[in-house]
Amino acid sequence: MDHHKYKVSLNMYDLSQGMARQFSPMFLGKQIDAIWHTGIVVYGKEYYFGGGICAQTPKSTIYGYPIEVSQLGETEIPQGTFEEFLRSISSKYSMEKYDLFENNCNNFTNECALFLVGKGIPENIIGLPQEFLNTQLGQMLKPAIEQFTNKQATAQTEHFNEPQNQQLQPPPSSQNINAQIINQALLQPQPQSSQPISLNQKVQPAQQPPQQQTITDTNVTAIDDLTTYLCLIESSPVSIVDFYTDWCGPCKTIKPLFHKLSLEHPHINFYNVNIDKVREIADSLQVSSIPTFIIYENGQQKERWTGGNQQTLINNLQKLK
């Protein structure tokens, strides 16, 4: 009987490429270190759930280089026995049965760890989907994470769900697929709110629309994509955002005051978002009428209101230190 002991470890990757750590305080009120993908390392291979049960040389998968490695212990179970176990559970861990919440890569590595060393992977990794992916930021990242975790493995990948002679798909390009997909998810338009959206009730302009006032003195910064919005709000101690459109009457009325106040309150970062040009920001924040103003302090929303009442704008800014 083979009594050789094999070290078992857990490779841990961040599918969000650092975005969870950066933006989770704003959306959750606390920091989450990563959106974890994990792989079990034993017998000189890394086993993971990605388009089926796969095995590759450790740290050579499409997930990049692990940001953390956790030592799980040792096992006396021979490699052949373990791989037979993988074949026995392969129908459960197929591409068709992948579920981001209930049957994901971390559920797979947890089951493997229990088989090999008698204990599971860290609980915070198993419980993360329900905690994070139900949030606003989680919903923005969910399509990207699902797309990425369902990627087929490279030609050097061994599959336990398929006959050994089955032709595998060609390897992906050498570009950073992870970052590319995450960035696409943050930049793509989000589903529209189910609430009544007055933004869709656009008033047809008159044949000769009134000439708009040109504002030259201002400290207002225009934001034209969602990623920039998140970064600026997170990095600003105090900020206010004006959501507007060019055709909105109340927006035009309050616009000069908003720009004037930006000069009078240099300690506040003033931003505006033209919803007609950057609809994904409005959708992700459920802005359903205009003008809408949101005040943030250290990335946390402190005040939100709609309408062009000038005194309300002045009063809310005076509350800020």
UniProtKB/TrEMBL annotation:
Q: Does the UniProt entry include the keyword Disulfide bond?
A: no
UniProt key word Phosphoprotein: no
Single GO MF descriptor: peptidase activity
**Residue spans with biased composition (Low complexity)?**
192-213
The record's keywords, sorted A to Z, are:
Hydrolase, Protease
PROSITE patterns attached to this UniProt entry:
PPPDE, THIOREDOXIN_1, THIOREDOXIN_2
Q: Which InterPro entries match?
A: PPPDE_dom, PPPDE_sf, Thioredoxin-like_sf, Thioredoxin_CS, Thioredoxin_domain
Q: Which BP terms from GO are recorded?
A: protein export from nucleus; proteolysis; regulation of proteasomal ubiquitin-dependent protein catabolic process
Q: Which residues form the PPPDE domain?
A: 6-146
Give the protein name, as stated in the record. Thioredoxin domain-containing protein
